[in-house]
Amino acid sequence: DAGVIQSPRHEVTEMGQEVTLRCKPISGHNSLFWYRQTMMRGLELLIYFNNNVPIDDSGMPEDRFSAKMPNASFSTLKIQPSEPRDSAVYFCASSQAGLETDTQYFGPGTRLTVL
Amino acid sequence: EDQVTQSPEALRLQEGESSSLNCSYTVSGLRGLFWYRQDPGKGPEFLFTLYSAGEEKEKERLKATLTKKESFLHITAPKPEDSATYLCAVQVQFNNAGNMLTFGGGTRLMVKP
What we know:
The complex is a heterodimer of chains A (about 120) and B (about 110).
Chain A: E1 5-7, E2 10-13, E3 19-24, E4 31-38, E5 42-50, E6 53-56, E7 65-71, E8 74-79, E9 88-95, E10 105-106, E11 110-114
Parallel strand pairs in A: 2-11
Antiparallel strand pairs in A: 1-3, 3-8, 4-5, 4-9, 5-6, 7-8, 9-10, 9-11
Chain B: E1 3-7, E2 10-14, E3 19-26, E4 30-38, E5 45-50, E6 56-59, E7 62-66, E8 70-75, E9 84-92, E10 102-103, E11 107-112
Parallel strand pairs in B: 2-11
Antiparallel strand pairs in B: 1-3, 3-8, 4-5, 4-9, 6-7, 7-8, 9-10, 9-11
């Protein structure tokens, strides 16, 4: 099993540029989650999808952030324009909602640095 | 508001020195409590799920327990390879948030040989 796949693994960009992070969930999973992790704030949920539909985006920091899930096997998180305070590690996770375990499995993350 | 607090923030142990990590939670209704391990530069790796007070689960040198207010992750005779950050998270019942997790701040464990 391939697990959750994220790309790129590292991204360095300049302030004001557009950044797109990509995620492929585990095949058969119907829930997908985007998290951000920093030393100061720990692991924070940004948005999550059930069956490709956004359910809760209350964690998205501001309008510069947007996320899409056009199909069950792909999601993107976009930041436009990027700012230095967006520097963090961004994780994608997926789960099979409805089962007793309902466990979220995480990808390796994308380390974003905005200069 | 749901809250999850982990203690201590950091823990240094000698190899073989057993100890426990704490995860205290305040939630409206617990559906499940999850433990993850995170190594530097990697995503959190699932360890255990606990659903009801009194439940225990074990994996190698790790044992997780659950009460109505907290969970403990007991580490017996740890080895240097157990060094990692351990995260706990809660999933809440009866809200519109579905299967969201709320994470604690983590405990960074360092085991010296």
